[in-house]
Design goal:
By secondary structure, the chain is mainly α. The chain contains 13 helices and 4 strands. A two-stranded antiparallel ribbon has the order 1-4. It has a two-stranded antiparallel ribbon with strand order 2-3. The protein is globular.
Length: 345
């Protein structure tokens, strides 16, 4: 048991390091994309709207309005179907790998841990926005930004593009980095992949629109529950990271990160998203949030933080620096706890 705990700790450290160094190469197959295809495939077979659209025998079938309760139940069925499939496949891969050889199992665990985490990819995609801005290519920056945000990027000004990139890095520090790290530390790649499935279903189905209001409600609520504690742990780690970075650069402030987090951590429609956004806004002295267009619809959101200074392109790099130090803080705490647990057993 102690040997496997040691391998798990080492796999967590190496997988995290591998993610930071290379991220997710686009030319390699990615299990999260596989989860996305599974969600789409399952949705196409469970949505009552699809049933009506495919039934062309009568006009009545085409005009049938889906029952909200039935739609909601089918959304729940999709959620459990995807979770069971991801759990079964990942557990099978891990068990077989470790049964064949413990070092093969260790290697598979390192690779899957790297896939589960998204710090490297988040840095690469967000810094692509910064690179275009430094080249004074605002159109290119908007195109790069559209790869990582859901809002309409065409009408954004340069300052709004920077703000969107900073917000994305701040929010995803929780659900793209720290939360999957926590779940992977607790239950290995099996629990880490299950969390990624929960998060992916929310990102694909958890919208407040005619298509997903009922069908994606369970997926959205499940994601809120799974991220409740990780989001708050992420914020506290980010505040600690701001204090650490504040000793290196005056641009960061741990004290202000804590103050803004306490004040604005609930300033979001999501119960979790403003946790790290508020800590980041306070750490960098920026105002984030506000109204944005999503598919042509203006969505009003509260502002987060105070505009201590004007936002600038370098803030994208600073937000990434804050994200990586937050990850280091979390990794040190988790490996310390796991090591203590190993010696207690």
């Amino acid at each position: 048991m102690k040997e496997y705990m040691t391998l798990h700790i080492l796999a967590l450290l190496l997988g995290t390091l591998l993610d930071c160094l290379i991220g997710d190469p686009h030319f390699l197959p990615h299990p999260i994309r596989g989860i996305g295809r599974l969600i789409t495939w399952t949705e196409n077979r469970l949505r009552p709207e699809t049933d009506a659209a495919e039934n062309k025998e009568t006009d009545a079938a085409e005009e049938t309005e889906p029952d909200p309760k039935c739609t909601h139940r089918r959304g729940i069925l999709l959620w459990f179907t995807v979770i069971f499939a991801v759990l079964a496949v990942t557990m099978s891969v891990m068990v077989v790998s470790y049964l064949v050889n413990r070092w093969l199992g260790f290697a598979v665990e390192v690779i899957l841990t790297c896939y589960i985490l998204a710090a490297g990819s988040l840095r690469r995609e967000s810094m692509a926005v910064a690179a275009k801005l430094l080249e004074q290519d605002l159109t290119g920056a908007k195109q790069a930004l559209s790869m990582i945000v859901g809002r309409d990027t065409a009408p954004l000004s340069e300052a709004e593009v920077i703000q969107a990139a900073v917000e994305t890095v701040a929010e995803n520090t929780s659900d793209g980095v720290i939360a999957p790290l926590l779940y992977t530390a607790l239950g290995g790649p099996v629990l880490g992949m299950v969390y990624k499935a929960v998060n992916t279903m929310d990102s694909m189905l958890g919208y407040h629109n005619d298509r997903y209001e009922h069908f994606g409600r369970f997926a959205a609520r499940a994601d809120d529950v799974c991220n409740f504690l990780p989001a708050r742990i992420s914020a506290l780690c980010m505040i600690a990271s701001a204090a650490i970075l504040g000793r290196i650069s005056d641009i960061y402030s741990g004290k202000n990160a804590y103050r803004i987090w306490k004040r604005d951590r609930r300033n979001h429609t999501s119960p979790n998203s403003a946790q790290t956004e508020s800590a980041c806004a306070g750490a960098l002295g920026l105002k984030l949030g506000g109204a944005h267009l999503y598919q042509g619809v203006l969505v009003e959101k509260p502002t987060i933080g105070d505009a201590v200074r004007e936002i600038e392109t370098a803030d994208i790099r600073r937000a990434n620096g804050l994200m990586f130090v937050t990850e280091v803080v979390a990794v040190l705490i988790l490996t310390g706890l796991l090591t203590a647990l190993r010696f207690l057993n």
